[in-house]
Amino acid sequence: MGQLQQALLVVGALIIAAVVAFNVWQSWQLRRRRPRAEGAGPFMVDESGTAAGRDVQREPGLDDEPQYLEPQLASAEPVRLRPAALRIDPLIDAIASFMFEQPVPGESLLSRMPRIARVGTKPLLFEGRNAQSGLWETLQPSERYAELQAGVQLASRSGALNAIEYSEFVTKCHALGEALGSSPDLPDMPDVLEQARDLDAFAAANDAQLSINLQAHGVAWGVDYLRQQAQAVGFNTSLAAGRLALVEQLPAAAVADGSDVGRLIPLVQLHYDSMADFAENPEMPVSRATLLLDVPQVPQALQPFARMRDAARRLAQGLDARQVDDNGAPLSPGALDQIEQQLTQLYAALDERGLQAGTLTTQRLFS
Question: Would the pLDDT of 69 be above 50?
């Protein structure tokens, strides 16, 4: 055997040893990740790549399970609302499908999901068709799935899905397909972008965020006094510094299919200077507060605008404040009546599109 052949044999042996070592290391890494995947629950990944719930960030956070909230003083530990589990919906999502020859464990699917479940400003959602029940569901490590689907949101308040974002979605789907051994079935880009533009135009034409400002007559209020008055009116939930919410459970009459019954939903928000919550002085003066209603986020059945008007009236009495618009002009009852009549048309337009106000799908679109 010549020296060249001997050298080639040595090089070949080294390459084989390196491949074996790499496979052993990769298997060890996978075993390290598995305990975390089993306890992760519904899958979603945030911008930092950290596993979290299946929910995108939104303001305010929502809860998918009924629970009782004890009234809390604003100075006490804030009550936080957990986000609700989101589902892919063809009304607002472009959907890619992955078929499997044999059912795939949820743990295996979760370990291969994109590190960042977002393209541009649009979130991604993933669901599997349970091999046993045949139902689509959030991926669970302990289940097996016959099919996977990925959805990218077509539009939000940041605008319509664009060509760059959709191309990134396609790239992520192909990478996922390679990892899973299944080519994705993707909708055509021109059709998706047309749907995105249409949905964005509809959302822009039927969006409304209404506010009533409370302006101190003369002497400003201490921040503690403002919070006490707000609590007396029902604003017992803290969303963030300078933001309280009047929260209510979603009744059966508020949703078409009853799937969201009992979910906690912020009905009306109260905003004031966030720096007042960080001040050491409980008498730090606050001279203006704003009641905010995000119309598409709240079901019509809860009569949110009427509730906001009532809360504004009661707070104005307690704080000795004037009700004014954003320019400081007084708000008359007649002007508020006219706004309430216009809201009826907006709710009807949302219903006709299949996007009932307050549903999780509508909340995603108007976020």
Answer: no
Rounded-to-integer distance, Cα 256 and Cα 252, Å: 8
Beta strands 144-153; 243-249: pairing state:
unpaired
Peptide bond into 333 cis (omega under 30): no
CA angle 341, 243, 209 (to 5 degrees): 25
Residue 104 has pLDDT above 60, yes or no: yes
Buried residues in 109-125 as b, exposed as e (16+ CB within 10 A) = bbbebbeebbbeebbbb
Rounded to whole angstroms, the Cα distance separating 325 from 336 reads 11
Which DSSP symbol is given to 49? S
Paired tokens of 337: 């009546």
Comparing CA positions, the residue from 194, 124, 117 lying closest to residue 153 is 124
Give pLDDT tens digits for 140-195: 999 999 999 999 999 999 999 999 999 999 999 999 999 999 999 999 999 999 99
pLDDT at 138 over 50: yes
The residue written with tokens 């009700």 in the block is 323
Confidence class for position 31, pLDDT limits 50, 70, 90: very low
User: What is each CA distance from 283 to 147, 204, 226, 279, in whole angstroms?
Assistant: 59, 41, 10, 9
Token duo for residue 356:
């009932």
Instruction: For residue 255, give both structure tokens.
Output: 């949703």
Domains, in order of start, for the chain: 93-204 (3.30.1400), 207-365 (3.30.1400.10)
**How many C-beta neighbours within 10 Å does residue 128 have?**
26
Q: Which long-range contacts (CB under 8 A, 24 or more apart) does 305-310 make?
A: 305/210, 305/339, 305/340, 305/343, 306/340, 307/246, 307/267, 307/268, 308/210, 308/212, 308/267, 308/268, 309/212, 309/336
The pLDDT value given to residue 83: 59
